[in-house]
Write a structure and sequence with these properties.
Elements: H1 2-23, E1 27-32, E2 35-36, E3 40-42, E4 49-50, H2 52-64, E5 67-72, H3 75-83, E6 89-90, H4 98-101, E7 104-106, E8 111-113, E9 115-120, E10 136-140, H5 144-150, E11 156-160, H6 163-171, E12 177-181, H7 182-191, E13 196-199, E14 206-208, E15 211-213, H8 217-232, H9 235-243
Parallel strand pairs: 1-5, 1-6, 10-11, 10-12
Antiparallel strand pairs: 2-3, 3-4, 6-15, 7-15, 8-14, 9-12, 9-13
Length: 244
């Protein structure tokens, strides 16, 4: 009986060791919301996640010696997940803000963007952000755009899990405008000539960063080192030409 008991204990220890090895595989789990072209989206042919952010982080990970694995999640769950350290890293055209920086670490900035209003080409009464009072305006849930619209007294915010649905509703006349990042807006305008246009100038100054689980300063340093390497190589300019 004593021998069987000892064997059972040894077996449990081995199971624990094997489980620990699985959890410590060394892979960095990366969350992204692949509904935000050209930064991240699903390739219709390959069904793989692709985009500016994906190419960038792949290069950063390569220079930093990190093995990464992507998880495609909605933007709101992405923010909650990285804040709770369910993911090691998140990249999703994410603006660095004071509020977010209280819940997660950020890399150095890698891209400058800003918010802009998009309307139908035949719209003549919306000339920019100041003309949205009394209008129904779409934005992706959890984004800077949705926060800005929510702060405008008299504007009605309609949120979407997929920003593409907001632009579709705009073209169908179900909402009056969309507020989103300038590169995203220009992408939809260029894809829908004669249907969409931007209204007014970019009205915010924002910087995208790679989010990292709070407290993991070692990973933050590794990512910043990899990011500096790709910046020094001129890769970001190449990605701008490729995707934007």
């Amino acid at each position: 009986m004593k021998r069987i008991y000892l064997l059972a204990i040894v077996g449990l220890v081995l199971v624990g060791l094997l489980s620990g090895c699985g959890q410590g595989s060394g892979k960095v789990l990366v969350a992204t919301d692949a509904t935000w072209p050209p930064f991240e989206s699903i390739n219709e042919q390959t069904k793989e996640i692709e985009g500016f952010d994906i190419d960038l982080l792949n290069a950063v990970a390569d220079r930093a010696g990190l093995e990464i694995e992507y998880v495609n999640v909605g933007f709101d769950p992405l923010l909650a997940g990285i804040a709770q350290c369910q993911y090691d890293v998140a990249i999703s055209a994410m603006t660095i803000t004071e509020e977010r920086s209280e819940k997660m670490l950020f890399s150095d900035p890698y891209f400058e963007a800003g918010q802009v209003v998009t309307v139908k080409t035949d719209n003549s009464d919306i000339s920019g952000i100041d003309a949205l009072i009394g209008k129904t305006v779409g934005a992706q849930i959890g984004t800077t755009g949705s926060i800005i619209i929510g702060d405008i007294g008299g504007a009605t915010l309609k949120t979407y899990d997929d920003i593409g649905l907001a632009y579709q509703d705009l073209m169908n006349g179900q909402i009056d405008a969309v507020v989103a990042d300038n590169p995203m807006a220009l992408g939809y305008v260029n894809k829908n000539p004669g249907k969409l246009k931007t209204a007014g100038k970019v009205f915010t100054e924002e910087f995208y960063g790679i989010a990292i689980c709070m407290g993991n300063t070692e990973l933050q340093s590794q990512i910043n080192a990899g990011l500096k390497a790709v910046q020094d190589e001129g890769l970001i300019e190449e990605l701008i030409q490729k995707w934007l």
